[in-house]
Amino acid sequence: MGRQQFPRVTLFDAPTPIQRLERIEAALGLKGARLFVKRDDLMGLGGGGNKLRKLEYLLGAAIEQGCDTFVTTGARQSNHARLSAAAAARMGLKAELMLTDTVPRDDPSYLHNGNQLLDGLFGATVHHLPRGTNALTAAHVRADELRAEGRKPYVVGAGGSSPVGALGYASCAAEIRAQEAEMGLRFETIIVANGSHGTHAGLVAGMASAEDDPRRILSFTVLAELAEAERETLALAHQTHALLGGWEIHPDAIRIDGSQRGEAYGIPTEAMLAAVRLMARAEGLLIDPVYSGKAFAGVLAGLAEGRFTGDVLFVMTGGTPGLYAYQPAFA
Fold first, then answer.
1. For tag attachment on the chain, is the N or C end more exposed, with fewer CB atoms within 10 Å?
2. Residue 87 belongs to domain with CATH number
3. What is the pTM of this model?
4. How many domains in the chain?
């Protein structure tokens, strides 16, 4: 995909590296499969993470429209909100974050550490909303107030997962394909976490636009129930593909696994805790407890059961500050 077709800003150095996890391969006793990670956690701005790919296009659109305030939504410990604050600061815009208490926790670590600490450091104005509030509706109400003050807001929903935001991962699909060619391999399965659906949808749209097989992409839902995740990911993939001039995405192109979600979004599982610890102790790498931790637990289960073969790529999407908000779970 030609990134120059759409307004964008540069928020990180591309491509992010792909590395092999040989110590985890050895720990699992893998035969017939090799495990790699794409280090989208290594983006330098704001603590890093995959939301910067989306924000390149979202802030590009906001700036092209002459906006001076970036208004977005998320849970209290939202990685997207934290990186929106950082990216807006980098580009000279104000950030207003509409954050909902989605996860039923009230311990000090969750309420005040992790991304909450960083939101304030980056200078964002944070609005805390009660559980059950429609955050996007609240964001539009706030945008109306800002317009009345003479400001020009740009509003985007949770995760930056609009069709424009998902272009960031359509671009990532092209990046992965180029790295495959350089490395002389082809990943049989490319695995991501699925929260607000934009990472999976963007990768599918990017692969389809390149006439590559979008079924190589597999996600583990960590937010929505499986049926909703499948429906919303398909819709967003279709809308993103349409921006690129493509046709409708077939439902069979969307592969999502619901086995690692656990009780609910943001609620720890034993498999997640074990996956985070294994990645840290075997490879010295940190994955977050809400997204990558649950998805990587799915990777480990699939490898152990022999469901994944050949070369497997796990996209590490960042979110490391979230570990500090989950200290009680790891204690």
1. C
2. 3.40.50.1100
3. 0.96
4. 2
